Write the structure tokens for this entry.
Amino acid sequence: MAELIEIKDVKKVYHVGTEDVHALDGITLTLKKNEYLAIMGPSGSGKSTLMNLIGCLDTPTSGSYRFNDMEVKDLSDDELARIRNKEIGFVFQTFNLLPRADAAHNVELPLIYAGIPRVERRRKVEQALEAVGLSERARHRPSELSGGQRQRAAIARALVNEPSVILADEPTGNLDSKTGEEIMQVFEKIHHAGNTIILVTHEEYIARHSGRIIRLMDGLVESDVRV
Amino acid sequence: MQVSESLRIAVTNLRVHKVRSLLTILGTVIGVMSVIAIVSIIEGMNRYVSERLLEEGSNVFYVDKFGMITDYQEYLDAMSRKDLTVDDARALERLSTSILVVGSMSQSRNDVRYRSREVSSVEIRGVDEGFQPANAVEVEHGRFLSREDVLRRRPVCVLGADVRDKLFAGLDPLGKEVRVGRYIFTVVGVAEKKGSLLGMSQDSNVMMPITAFQKAYGSRSPVMLMAKARDQESLQLAQDEARAILRARRKVPFSKPDDFAIMSAETFMEMYKNFTSTAYLVTIGIASLSLVVGGIVIMNIMIVSVTERTKEIGIRMAVGARRAEIMFQFLIESLILSGTGGLIGVLVGVGLAVLVSNVTPLPAAVKAWAIGMGLLVACGVGTFFGIYPAARAAKMDPIVALRYE
């Protein structure tokens, strides 16, 4: 079976003033379906840049990134948007929910951009909210939800379009440890349901939930360990 | 993405910023409102004037020595011309085959008194017997001035309905003597009420034999001829004949232009249309100025809105919104802004036009094309000025947008 994600010698260079910053300096890694990967590293190690690349929000300066056997570099803006919509589910540290929309509408968002009809959207939203245990709070706005509930809504949004991979960037960073643990249980559950998860964190105990830990340092893979 | 979702987002956002949205569309409202109101009033006046002119009889034309005077030199030139005379009127009747009847008229203003009652500044008309048929004057009471009255310079007069009402108020005026300036005239008739034209009464006048008029006001007061053609078809021919006859009588050399002017309802209508088309241009100029300003305001607020919602744009891009969809969303929003402005402008403009036609003598006719154009232009302005902010939103880098606080 083909790899879901195949990254070969990827570099990403930013121009800051007159200086070139090598955020990624030749990274190679592969990921299969249904893996649960944690990416660790100190700030400035290139974690976020790598996440953005994997999430098709950005493209590499050089090297090859193949997603589902497609060379991401060759894709147009619209094709990248389509991949983000159908194949990738983002979970952010700051939740990034639309403040003026209720939880259900936030979850519905990717389905709207996917052009799915209303009736089917409603069914999928219900399912996703059910899966994260937030059905009761569907009609509440983010400001009326607790941090944990907000993150559940964000996970439901990431799940709703049945993506190939869920990218979680410090999903427990803004939560207390108890709530953080609950959220990790949610990830565990959806991993068991067959989803592929990539988690960025700098907390060792969070990373330990995963099946494989990659440590980055100065834009390079320092270690790649299966737990 | 469905249009309904874009609409939903746009309406939600505009409702959240009610006051801001209202202020934003003010320019558009004012622009569309002035177009609708002024077009309605001008159209109303056009219809009114053309109806009234046709009613006056479209087979009547007028001859005087002035024509349309537009500057002082023209006025001086015209003043030095020979006057038209009652004899010219008779000659036209005799020599032209297409002219049915010709009336002559001289005008002045004076106070009219009956015993202790007085009406000031009444239009005094010296007319001949042709005036009645040419001008379709109906006599309500008594009789009109006759050929004998004119030839014998009799001191008799016919009162306009307003003057009768003010001087006699219920009394029978026939046979009574009224004082016009220094002279005394016997009332022989009362003309039927004609109503007002653009707020000016047409019944505030006294008609007397032109000979008597010339005795009282001097024989040098200019005479205007009113000629009635046989019918509508022969109007042009009648005017041509009148021109030839008058040139011969006034001995105008072949190479010189007319030293008199012929005007018909059409001439007045053309002049009027000229005037209103200028008014149209001015209105449209001012309105487009305010629409452009309104558009710039919309653009400005949309740029603010795009900046404020940078994070939202980032989120939408992360969950799969294409750039075109982001662009579309903001375009719809500015379209709704300006469309709402256009709609309010139409409502206020129509209201204004109706108000004006109710409280002033100006009539108003609300035109469907003006409403359609107003809305279309408003929406066009919104779309045009929405392009830049929307493109700015669509061009955003999703990573930068997501990080925006």
In short: Chain B has two domains: 3-51+275-403, 82-259. The first strand of chain B starts at residue 60 and ends at 64. Chain B has a mean pLDDT of 89. DSSP finds 14 helices and twelve strands in chain B.
